Amino acid sequence: MADTEGERRPAGELEASVLAALWSAGTPLSAAQVRATISQDLARTTVATLLTRLHEKGIVDRRPAGRGFVYFPVQDAHGLTARRMHRELDQVGDDRGIVLARFVEGLSPHDEAALRRLLEESGG
Fold it and tell me: Whose CA is closest to 50, among 38, 63, 65, 64?
């Protein structure tokens, strides 16, 4: 699982490749099918381990198929990003307001307008 010159690829990069394969397939895939879809040259066991970790994190779900499992994403890419944002907010405890204020301060005018529009539409 090493890149050229003996460097290891970040796990996040590999997980992103696996998720991209699942999202583009639109149907549940086995570890072997995911491996055949991604551009990285990984062992089937490496892909199976990545899928198991994504399942443990609740990012993908699985169902029995043959002697193993087929995997499918629980959310699309946008839903996963929103989930990560919620998780980050949950970790700051009582400082949520401060974190949200800093987030809003860093928004571009376009993103701020989009956020205002979404809040108005949701009654927030």
Answer: 38
Q: Are 63 and 49 in contact (CB under 8 A)?
A: no
Indicate whether 4 pLDDT > 50. no
Contact 8, 46 (CB under 8 A): no
Find the angle CA(3)-CA(59)-CA(72) to the nearest 5 degrees: 90
* pTM of the complete model: 0.71
CA pair distance 59, 77, nearest whole angstrom? 10
pLDDT tens across 50-101, in order?
999 999 999 999 999 999 999 999 999 899 889 888 888 999 888 899 999 9
**CB 107, CB 116: distance < 8 Å:** no
CB 84 within 8 A of CB 19: no
User: 13: helix, coil or strand?
Assistant: helix
Q: How many residues would you count in the chain? A: 124
Look at strands 60-65 and 68-73 and give their pairing. antiparallel
pLDDT digits (tens, 9 = 90+) for 16-40: 999 999 999 999 999 999 999 998 8
